[in-house]
Design a protein that fits this description.
Strand order of the largest sheet: 11-10-9-8-1-2-3-4-5-6-7-12
Order of helices and strands: HEHEHEHEHHEHEHEEEEEE
Radius of gyration: 18 Å
CATH architecture: Alpha-Beta Barrel
CATH superfamily: Aldolase class I
Shape: globular
Largest sheet: 12 strands, mixed
Number of helices: 8
Strand content: 15-25%
Number of strands: 12
Structural class: alpha/beta
Distance between the termini: 36 Å
Helix content: 25-40%
CATH class: Alpha Beta
CATH topology: TIM Barrel
Oligomer: single chain
Length: 300
């Protein structure tokens, strides 16, 4: 269905939000009130969608996230199927809080554990949850002991922009391979925390210069919207292309091609869980009609 409507033939990675439920309520989370919703993929629904994407769109990787994916009761089975049956590259994006037991169970099937952090110590805990920083470091240690490659994500905002380099150095010490930096988007919980927004965009230029001259060993990947000039020129996700890097499935089945449309109910496509296939449900405000540009990432 995606190919017929857009011409897109391949989608490299499926971002699969297994559930909305989370043990955190982070100030910047794009889910907002949906963190309380019970929508979730069953094991059968998750397996069917991964199989469909792999077969019809050549999808070669899956990133399991939520909410908090480690709260999903069937996470081990989802991970095993993705790796053993489909031979996908399997990543999980997690807050890392008290995940050690389940992480041990899935370690043989996991290619990357990516933990969300918003700075060092108290900076992180103020945005995420008290005790979350130490919990994340414990998970990184445990993953290293299990031989699982690790990385981290950080949503850059007014409270933590000065913590990017210190956090990168901490992650280096814990053996993490990569830090991925995102721009804050004012949806969900972030819409209720205007103090997180960066009004002086020259701060992004200073950050980029610091990263350029810091000689970090860890790889830093930067959302190109983290720039003084603002969003780079980019076409919408379906414009004159046959391949896109990602598609994200929310727990209801909504499919989003651009990170800039996530959390905004701008879906043009849905995964019909009962029928087990993708359907086109266009609207005047979907990401294709509005030509929502994709997010570009590059090494710092």
């Amino acid at each position: 269905m995606i190919t017929e409507v857009t011409g897109i033939r391949t989608v490299r990675m499926l971002y699969l939000q297994l559930l909305y439920r989370c043990n955190f309520a982070c100030q910047h989370c794009f889910h907002g009130e949906r963190l309380q919703h019970l929508d979730a993929f069953t094991l059968e629904e998750a397996v069917t969608l991964m199989r469909l994407m792999h077969k019809e769109y050549g999808t070669e990787a899956v990133n399991l996230l939520g909410g908090e994916p480690f709260l999903h009761k069937d996470l081990p089975e989802v991970v095993r199927y993705a790796k053993q049956e489909l031979d996908l590259h399997v990543e999980i994006c997690t807050n890392g809080y008290r995940i050690e037991r389940r992480l041990t169970e899935i370690a043989p099937y996991l290619d990357l554990l990516r933990i969300s952090l918003e700075g060092n110590g108290a900076t992180n805990d103020a945005i995420r949850r008290y005790g979350s920083y130490q919990g994340a470091l414990s998970a990184l240690n445990h993953a290293r002991d299990l031989g699982i490659p690790t990385g981290a994500t950080m949503t850059v905002n007014a409270r933590n922009i000065d913590e990017v380099l210190p956090l990168a150095r901490t992650l280096q010490d814990y053996g993490a391979r990569q830090l991925k930096l995102h721009r804050l988007r004012p949806v969900g919980n972030a819409a209720h925390h205007p103090e997180l927004r960066i009004s002086d965009t020259t701060a992004y230029a200073r950050l980029r210069e610091q990263l350029r001259t810091s000689h970090l060993a860890i790889e830093v990947i930067v959302d190109e919207d983290l720039s003084e000039e603002g969003t780079p020129e980019s076409r919408g996700p379906a414009a004159s292309t046959v391949s896109i890097p990602r598609i994200e499935a929310d727990p209801r089945g909504g499919l989003t091609m651009s990170c800039k449309a996530v959390g905004k109910d701008a879906h043009a496509f849905w995964y019909d869980k009962q029928a087990g296939h993708i359907v086109h449900r266009p609207s005047a405000t979907d990401e294709i009609v509005l030509a929502v540009p994709g997010v570009l990432y590059a090494r710092a």
